Description:
By secondary structure, the chain is α/β, with parallel strands linked by helices.
Amino acid sequence: MTHYPAELYVATHTGNPGDVAFYQESCIGACSVLELGCGDARILSQLHVQGRRLVGLDCNEELLERAEDHLRQHQTSPAIELVSGDMQRFQLNEQFERIIIPYSGLYCLPDATALRDCLNSIWDHLPPGGQLVLDTYAADGFHEQRLTEDGNEDEYSEIGTLDIGNVRYEVSERNIWNRAEQTIDARYRYQPTIGDSIEVRLPQRYILASQLRDEAATTGFERMDLWGGFDQLPYDPAGSDLMVFRATKPLTA
């Protein structure tokens, strides 16, 4: 396995339909927004309104460089600030009325301790009445499948093609699932028309809806909303493809 090139990551992981509009709506009325795992600023760049402070945090320097290039095209005022840091523990010495984690960014946290630390950091950076908003793929359905094996895929399966510059890649994916640890080791193979293939991995630890609510409640959040998509219909553990979550810090906190 090799380092995951930012250009391949960005071209492959393009978000879910409707996510930009959802986060725009979720941030209405907020004067400050922090995005954790901002990547190339695909979402963040669409949240600018006059006078709103926008900050993006990511631990991947290559993605932050792409974000800088992306934001130069928008030339917002004031400028959107990008910060190199780990979403598990961060200290920005300010608070934000919205903190968002789009597109399964929460699943980058490696274990339960990391999730707890992240939620505590988020709590510290929200004022009373501030909100955490995130979306992930829904994991409850496949996690509850009573399989005798972990559901590993022995072979790569083709998922499509990508054209980057003058190079076309055939893209294949293989997932290694550990149910007990709630991890999915997603592996991607990029085969260019000419030359050697590039193989990369994207480790994830998924979270069940009940675990997320319990951890958020332990952190101190009292008002929580859980939806099965950006249309804000109720979450169905057996049938929803997405898990969309919003938690509000109490006004008395």
